[in-house]
User: What shape does this take?
Amino acid sequence: MSVFESIRVAWGGLVGNKLRSTLTMLGVIIGVSAVIALVSIGQGARQQVTAQIQGLGSNLIMVIPRGNGAGRLYLDDVADLTKRVPEISVAIPDLTRQVVVKWGTSEYTTTAEGTAPGYEQVRNHNVADGRFLIQADIDQRRHVAVVGYKLYTDLFGERNPIGEQILINGSSFTVVGLMDPKGQGLGTDYDDRVIIPISTAQRMMGTNRVQTILAQARSSGEASQAVARITAIYQKKFPTRNPGTDDAMMVQSQDQILSTVTTATQTMTLMLGGIAGVSLIVGGIGIMNIMLVSVTERTREIGLRKAIGAKRRDILAQFLVESMILSLAGGLVGVLLGMGLSRLGALINIPSTVSLASIITAFVFSAAVGLFFGIYPAMKAAVLDPIEALRYE
Amino acid sequence: MAVATPVIEFRQVAKIYNPGEAEVRALDNVDLTIEEGEMVAIMGPSGSGKSTMMNLIGCLDRPTSGEYRLLGEEVGRKSDNELAEVRNRRIGFIFQTFNLLPRLTAVQNAELPLLYRGGPTPVRREASRKALEAVGLGHRLHHRPAQLSGGESQRVAIARTIAADPAIVLGDEPTGNLDSRSGAEVMAIFQDLNRRGRTVIVVTHDDQIAHHCRRIVRLRDGKLVRDETVAKPLVASPASMPLAGALGGAGLAGAGSTGSGGGRG
Assistant: This one.
């Protein structure tokens, strides 16, 4: 019997039992759509986090005190690193604090970030209007401020803010610049802040320390070497019992953070896909179950088909094609449903990316499920003894 | 005409179930020869081995010992696939319970053996349609078995055989589930098929049915106990549905020229 005839016969068998076929297919549909939707969400999350980390700046290196290094990072360290680490082009201090900003009658709580020229380059975030901080602002501890885009719209609306006087925690500052909108990333809103000279910030906050040092490597290739050099400097300066694990300064490059996060989200994606894959296997067991029932129910039919000349392979093909149709049709509907679900997720701000690879994988996997779980019932049907089968009540 | 090869030739054929201590000799060294164009009834009480003989003749089973030649070919040595091929081309089964597939229409049911033989769909459909017309069901082509009476269902089953055009028609209690009138119709078709050259073998326990055949073979406890010739077989009245002349065109090629059966009738 030709493949086409096998498909026709199998199709007839399925259509003859529409409700049952649909319910069986539902198992595969749910499995495949769950795989597609969850993997898409996992991949979407990864892309989002990756974009956010890349948005931190370019070739960024962060020096963050921890353990017994807490509070032991000073402005001098910035100059020191710039001098001693040739792989970095610029390094800036960073000191943030929650502050209250007032303009006229408007009042907002926002983040004040004390830093220095070079911020634009390190953060890859430029002024839209006016100017950024200059060295003279730092040296003379000027009360000048550059406002982030969100703070600007909240505080000034449409009005040009340059030259306006604002109060930060009660101290008067002159607005000299306005940053480009940059958006949010990794839990912070880069637009909801006011940038002031580091020296002024230290005075206001009553400290001579800095929270973190941000540096930019000259190229992504030199970043790891810069990290190694900076790590060595601080390991020597603050010796610890287990260098490498309890260092006083955590030095991380953007690439390192990226690979850590990528690994984490990949693991998450695999886990989600795996869980969904389990439901696909459950769907396959459903196919096997229903095919076994079908073979038993149709024992006499099998007997008759054999009596009038069906060979084992004809019977095998008939039932195998049935289970393949169930799983492939289920897979197809599942792919469409999965794409729909991830589209729906995008509508409610769950980032998701449907990749061709996940579609093909889910589809091939569902075909494999149909083949794997269909082979046993089909074999069972094929080896039935026609005499016994014809006598079956 | 040269000496024709017998259609069926049993040489000391035995079928033994559960060989060993509790063995059952369903058929015990039976010799039987059936020539082309014969119409034979196989009779016997239940347990006499007539079903076993039926299964062997129909190539659904192989003998435990002895030799079964069908159209001159030894069956015991054939593979499962070859036996399927033989069943498909040489043998037409008619069952007591009709064994139609409930999901398929009459025309689809009659087409089934041709499906396993291959060939273009329109040709198969046409053969199936003509076979149904030949048994007087030209008006029931697209009915499903549930919509047909018992007699009509059995006629669809016969059409399934006619469409396949086998040399041997094997009826297993073909009238067992039918009223006497439908039974007579079925026997009329069998006699007509026989007249057209088919070798017809009917397993039955009904004397009336058996006496429609020219030869009656009686089995008891797996042995052939009597082989008699019926001098004047009963002639089933074609009644309401004479086999239409379309039979000849329904794939029964050579039905008219296979003279032996027609000559004796």
About this structure: Chain B has one domain: 37-63+79-264. DSSP finds eight helices and ten strands in chain B. The beta strands of chain B are 8-17, 24-34, 39-43, 65-70, 73-74, 91-94, 168-172, 199-203, 215-220, 223-229.
